[in-house]
Amino acid sequence: MVERGGRIYLSSPHMSGQEQQYISEAFETNWIAPLGQNVNCFEQELAQFVGSKGAVALSSGTAAIHLALILLNVGRGDVVFCSSLTFVASANPILYQGATPVFIDSTPETWNMSPEALKNALEDYAAKGHKPKAVIVVNLYGQSADYDRIKSICDEFEVPIVEDAAESLGATYGKRMSGTIGKFGVFSFNGNKIITTSGGGMLVSDDTELLAKARFYATQAKDSAKYYQHSHIGFNYRMSNVLAGIGRGQLQVLQDRIFRKREIFNLYNESLATIKGISFMPDVPYGKSTRWLTAMLIDPDNLKVTPCDVVDYLEQYNIESRPVWKPLHLQPLFKDSVYYHYGESDVSQRLFRRGICLPSDTKMSREDQGKVIDKLVQYIT
Ligand SMILES: *Cc1c(COP(=O)(O)O)cnc(C)c1O
């Protein structure tokens, strides 16, 4: 529980109590190893929850993205398109493979990848006789990207989608679950995500053959021989059986967490959206967001504070908040990368300059959230 006078977090681990049972089982059977009953069950339970044919439990979401790129044969000299407005982990695996990232802008309606900018980029590359090996589409802050349009564009150019659903587990896209639209979907169970295993990830797909290959690469790529023989580069990327036990307990309360995240968003929205110059990440018509983090925009034409000012101000009251992701095309790491913006403007840059993520911790009491809102109103207006 967040205690009175204690710190109010952006999003921190929130155990259900049921995790302990699965961890105990692992202890009692001495199954304190990677692999085991919890790993198998967690994979099956998550695949069933999202409606994919299979799932592979891994040590992180980043590992899942990396394996997806390997399975799509991304290598040196290849190009991979990626959303710009995201956490660096979406794109780092492109560099692990020696490939080149090309960044795609967001649309103001969804904050996610702009189908127009994506189409421009694909046409541009096609005109030069090239195409990317994959497009990594990120579902930001709990909300699916516009896949009707993104998928038909990618299908037209025959480029597979890796859906970075690290932030959108439990969100819907039409009748489907977020993370199941691309060739591969990626989830994260890092400590700040909607459910957590302290650290971990999952790769999902309907292609069970490729998922079997993912398991192979994730366990050091050992050939089927009586001795240790290796023909491929492998990784040590599997999730431990203990952590998978935490995941099983967490999955049981995912719907409760989504309900609470949306409640938190609704209270911010009701309390703050009436202030001139304040707006929130829009709700899209094609699916339901989990509102993993409530993201708010501060319009500099109406209000004289920046997101960084607000972060510093709230920090004085032991309240954690943070600016919206700094787009990857603006990162020193990617300073030489190609970027396709949306229309005349750079939407992701504008969202970064104006955007802030507010405390969205499901353990936060209504009283605590009231304090956050009071401080925000005092400071902003
Ligand atoms: C958290 C996150 C990841 C990485 O997941 P890890 O499990 O921390 O490796 C990737 N992409 C996005 C968008 C994320 O928010």
Automatic annotation (TrEMBL):
What cofactor does this one take? Answer: pyridoxal 5'-phosphate
Where, by residue number, is the active site?
193
Organism domain of life: Bacteria
Kindly indicate whether the keyword Transmembrane belongs to this entry.
no
One GO process term, biological-process aspect: polysaccharide biosynthetic process
UniProt cross-references to PANTHER family, sorted A to Z: DTDP-4-AMINO-4,6-DIDEOXYGALACTOSE TRANSAMINASE, TRANSAMINASE
This chain's protein is named: Pyridoxal phosphate-dependent enzyme
Q: Which organism is it from?
A: Paenibacillus algicola
